[in-house]
Amino acid sequence: MKNIIRIHSNNQAHWVGDGFPVRTLFSYQSMGEELSPFLMLDYASPAAFPPSAQAKGVGPHPHRGFETVTIVYKGELAHKDSAGNSGTIGPGDVQWMTAGAGILHEEMHSAQFTQQGGMLSMAQLWVNLPANQKMRPPGYQAIEAERIPCIQFENDQGTARLIAGKHTGLSGPAKTHTAMQVWDLQIKKGAVISLPAPNHWTAALAILQGQVKTDKGLAGDASLITYSQAGSGIELVASQDTHALFLSGEPIREPMVGYGPFVMNTKAEIAQAIDDFNSGQFGRLD
């Protein structure tokens, strides 16, 4: 088994735009190399929004050099980008967007959610791209909830939705550029579950809601457990009903330089990304 390195929690929420009160569980500035290929995870715990005449969210903004993975648990988002993609992301759905060489997009509360109001809960994960894929054309995967296979753990201990990766003959629908597992877990109180994470891969368990017992203490809401790369697999002991996100991946062992919404391999590439964005080369949103 892999050893636990640390447990980190974040009780301080901040707003992304005016539509997403989130807690950042890790970022590329603090854990980018440790958790490669994963760069960042924001968790928006359930929050109530009243009906409104004006949609809230995040207006047009750029990305280059990585992918954004948006998982909606409650509520509904509307996406639009400069590559011509648009769509609505509802409960259980996943949007896997490859920024590649550069994209502009916006993420807003959908028209229906804006008009009706309600609870919103979601997570957004950033996934790095290897150097030879950073300037690829942008891509977009709209993954509906019904396309995501679900594993039932033994003795009715819980379930795992395979967003990316393979297990017991099942494959997650997300097409990835490096090997990884992204699983959405619902685990029952008292469950003891082993999760597969190959030797030399990174591994982390994000506790969104609930509580997990470890030999380094309890991990509660909005907590992150990180594990050693050495060893195979992790063990999860749930002391409460728990909703978690399991991440494991083959590290991208390349230099990484990040600046806001750009993650590249050199400072010169970051400077080029800024110039390209300012000169309109990321396209536009109509």
Chain-wise SSE layout:
Blueprint lengths: L3 E6 L4 E3 L3 E7 L1 H4 L6 E12 L7 E7 L2 E9 L2 E5 L4 E4 L4 E5 L4 E7 L1 H6 L1 E11 L10 E5 L6 E3 L5 E7 L1 E2 L2 E2 L8 E8 L4 E4 L6 E8 L2 E3 L2 E3 L3 E5 L6 E4 L4 E8 L7 E3 L2 E3 L2 H12 L8
Antiparallel strand pairs: 1-22, 2-3, 3-4, 4-11, 5-10, 6-9, 6-11, 7-8, 7-10, 9-12, 13-14, 14-17, 15-16, 17-24, 18-23, 19-22, 19-24, 20-21, 25-26
Tags for this entry?
26 strands, seven-stranded antiparallel β-sheet, globular, 286 residues, 3 helices, mainly beta
Descriptive notes:
The protein is mainly beta and 286 residues long. The chain has three helices and 26 strands. The N and C termini lie far apart (51 Å).
Task: Summarize this entry quickly.
This protein has 286 residues and is mostly beta strands. The chain has helices at 28-31, 111-116, 267-278; strands at 4-9, 14-16, 20-26, 38-49, 57-63, 66-74, 77-81, 86-89, 94-98, 103-109, 118-128, 139-143, 150-152, 158-164, 166-167, 170-171, 180-187, 192-195, 202-209, 212-214, 217-219, 223-227, 234-237, 242-249, 257-259, 262-264. It has three helices and 26 strands.
